[in-house]
Here is the input.
Amino acid sequence: MAPRHILELSVEEQRCFIDSFDMMISDCDGVIWLLVGWIPGTGEAINALKNAGKSIKFVSNNSFRTDDQYMEKFDRIGARNVQHDDIVHPVKSIVRYLHKNKPGQRVYSLMSLEANETLRKHGIEYESLQIKEHLTSSTLVDYLAIDEPVDAVLFDIHLDLSYVELAKAIRHLQMNENCQLIAGGSDVIMPLADNLNVAGFYDFLQHVKRYTNREATFLGKPSPILGDMLKSMYNIEVPSRCIFVGDMLVQDVQFGKSCGFQSLLVLSGSLTKDDMDAAPLEAQPDYYADSLADFVQLLKNIE
Here is the structure.
């Protein structure tokens, strides 16, 4: 069955739709806001859903914000009572994974300064490079020397990523067959601003894989490991009573479906209705909306 717009449902169907879920898990960039810019009405929608008794959590593939910076953005849109534990992004998933599977082990970080600060706060010993000087072949050799092995290389969105950082990551993986490659988001496209989508960081990860023959363990959407984490963290016992909202088919809709959640695509981010309609039926969401703000009108309709 083709997805239906939530405001094109009958009032009775809208009521049944709202009654069909207790928890909403929503992507952030392209749904709640843009990487640069805002989406009108999303804060009001979050508050209205909470007033209707819905629990709302947020899962992003963006770790180049700290939790405090996320909270500032939620304050900016007027969303009330959002807590730090309501927000999950790749570096938090990575920290959780490392504490469980590699406690006390040293890692090499190909992540942002904000992500590295999160590692530090959680007591994870890491190596990273921030190169500001002009490099020559001789200084490159110095930077690529392995003084101490690491047990994992961590990869995520990193806007200051440099060649030497990638090369050092490849060296660590080549020199230690037990070194694990752990990745956050796998986004091919990033919705940067209104009508501006830019290439994501997935191809950089492919570069690392090409020279190491190492498959990555993904901990961002649409990883099933993340799905299991969310169910455990938020005590989701009946997945069909949860709806996942996002602006991408693979990272959001496919992820939600693989978790057993209902799925809703919003057209406020990187995709259009034509993109949705062109996808195979099994890849399409259960519902769609122009924006999360459509929930404001829907909830008024069923009062």
About this structure: The first helix runs from residue 11 to 19. The mean pLDDT is 94. The first strand starts at residue 4 and ends at 5. The two ends are 28 Å apart (CA to CA).
